[in-house]
Amino acid sequence: MPAFLNDRFVENDEAVLHVSDLSIQRGYAIFDFCRTINGIPLFLHDHLERFYASASAMHLPLKKNPEELSFIIHELIKRTAVSEAGIRIMLTGGNSTDSYHPAEPNLVITCNPVQTAIQSDFEKGYSIITHEYQRELPLVKTINYTMAVWLQPMLKNKEADDFLYYNKESVTEFPRCNAFIVTRDQKLVTPAHNILKGITRKHILLLARDMMTVEERNILIDELSTAHEIFLTATTKKIIPVIKMNNKIIGDGRPGVVTRKLYQKFLELENSLTHLVSL
């Protein structure tokens, strides 16, 4: 599979970083990830906008402008020739001489086949566990997933699918997904602070505003137990209902009415975007 490293197209096994790169030495790097349908990248503008915001927040200068990155991504999609692919854009802290101070960043872009959630995944839903933890630099999409990786054995032992983080003020996010609840009075609520604002999250909020009252605010951990529905959103998962939390069934243990309606609306949005571009 082809990849892009700094200024040239290479094969995946050639897209390597020096051992002195700060992504290796200190885990200092940012990334973004989007996917394609029929060779068309979904919400690419949104992903690039977030990527540049993350780069700025982490003091990582990016030589290429959004138009140049977009061209590279489309060229990678063409060279890969995979209908459904995942595009990963990463900008690292660079090859540091003292393993501490950032140097000239390294840009790595890959395009590989990706498996996304399907209807059966939606119907099955997720069993989750709550865990008190606040991610560092939550507004930035960094490569730091240390806690999420460290928790994997516990996830396996509990036979759960994911963790939902919370702090003293609010529920925040899943390691790779955003969280939503539907309240008893039929309001859609999602955390507003100390989270990474996902691209799927953004479009679900836009779709939901035509259906119901939408609130972005703190969600107390106790609110989860009274929620009518809970679901998560992410690029590859789209929308997945939460049917069990801390071994307690949510609702009737099946995808809720609002969750299902938003799921269908999101699939329709995907189809309309790829259809319009392909015309």
Poorly predicted residue ranges: none
Q: Provide the gyration radius in Å.
A: 19 Å
The fourth-level CATH homologous superfamily of the largest domain is: D-amino Acid Aminotransferase, subunit A, domain 2
| Helix-strand topology string | EEHEEHHEEHEHHEEEHEEEEH
Supply the helix-strand structural class: alpha+beta
Q: Which strand-content bin applies to the residues?
A: 25-35%
Name the average pLDDT: 96
Structure description:
The protein has 279 residues and is α+β, with helices and mostly antiparallel strands. The chain has two domains: 2-113, D-amino Acid Aminotransferase, Chain A, domain 1, CATH 3.30.470; 119-273, Alpha-Beta Barrel (D-amino Acid Aminotransferase, Chain A, domain 2), CATH 3.20.10.10. It is 29% helix and 27% strand. The protein is built from eight helices and 14 strands. It has helices at 22-25, 44-57, 66-80, 119-124, 146-150, 152-157, 199-208, 257-278; strands at residues 2-5, 8-11, 29-37, 40-41, 85-92, 107-113, 126-132, 162-166, 178-182, 187-190, 213-216, 229-234, 238-245, 248-249. The strands form two sheets. Strands 7, 8, 9, 10, 11, 12, 13 and 14 form an eight-stranded mixed sheet that branches. A hairpin with a 2-residue loop joins strand 13 (238-245) and strand 14 (248-249). The longest helix has 22 residues, at 257-278. It is globular. It starts with a strand and ends with a helix. The mean pLDDT is 96.
What attributes characterize this protein structure?
279 residues; alpha+beta; D-amino Acid Aminotransferase, Chain A, domain 1; D-amino Acid Aminotransferase, Chain A, domain 2; 2 domains; 8-stranded mixed β-sheet; 6-stranded antiparallel β-sheet; 8 helices; 14 strands; 29% helix
